[in-house]
Amino acid sequence: MVSGGLYRGSLGELRKLFNTLRVRGYRVIGPKLEDGVIRLRELTSFDQIPYGWGDVQAPGTYRVVRGGSFRVGPDSPKRFLYPPKLELFRIRPDWSVEYPRERFAPTAFFAIRPCDLASIAVMDRVQGTSGDPHYLGLRGELALIVENCVEPGDTCFCATMGTGPEARDGFDVAFTRLGDDLVVFRPGSDLGVELLSCLNLEPADDSTLRTYYEALREAEARARAPFDLSRLPDELELGLDSPVFKEVAERCFGCAGCNMICPTCFCFDVIDEPLLEGGAVRYRVWDGCIAYSYAEVAGGNFRRDLWARYRHWVLHKFAYWVRQFGVFGCVGCGRCVTWCPAGVDLRDVIRRVVEWVRSRGGG
Description:
- It is a single chain.
- This protein is of the alpha+beta class.
- It folds into two domains: 7-222, no CATH class; 232-359, no CATH class.
- 34% of the residues lie in helices and 22% in strands.
- It contains 13 helices and 16 strands.
- The strands form four sheets. It has an eight-stranded mixed beta sheet. Strands 7-6-14-13 form a four-stranded antiparallel beta sheet, with no helix packed on it.
- Helix 5 (158-161) links the parallel strand 9 (142-147) and strand 10.
């Protein structure tokens, strides 16, 4: 089997791939229907993956329905690789310092979407290069099994961001479900070749390839935003004075939910919690730049206005991140659109700012 080739198999072979990972000792994390929401959870059985269920997503709207295809839910790989609350150390009553002894079991993300795969590559640029030991410990034992999207949702714009609907690199195995019992597999690494060699697959024939590429072309046409990336960082920086940000702030609650739901936001705070028996525990917790407390310092708040904090978040994702890390901080997953309680659509905000800039001869 040649790495990178396309192979066809049945749904039973996909099940066998799942079981192979479990037999090899991997903790498998994948989509699971839980309390009416499709979350990322540890899976013990292939049947826990909610195939046969779909979701409806729109600005400020999410619900699970029978039939169709599900997309990303509120969880992303960040929840596991960069957890929302992480113990850094604890101080004992005798003032000794105790650091947690972490064991990083081999972990496989199974059936995650290409946008979430891309978010891990972005995190590699941030948490990885910063030397975050927890992140690097998990990342070193990670297998990535990604499912390509053939039915993107109404809030998806991965094609615009260049992160989907087909995974291009960075995975161990990519698979695409093209029917009730037809799955196309592609290995992306030596581990992927090894895993697929355990399955009963055959090279994809011409008919399968035509179906495969046509499905992905149609998905790519749907998963687009009303803007392009060619000059976007510069145009957004020229739009610092755009009234659009103040108009958005009239609807925004400032809850920082978009920060928390984003698969790449990495801002954090450090808190100390006292222990009843004496001493304390220091934790790293997620924080969000849209929250008022994030920009608060001893002398006041250097982004007191909500519109300024929202503007900072947009510029960080689509301009500052590019300057700092060489990639966009957004992967087009659409979570911030779906899970915004006010229904603010980031895609529309960017479109309006760009139009404002161009109407004044910028861009």
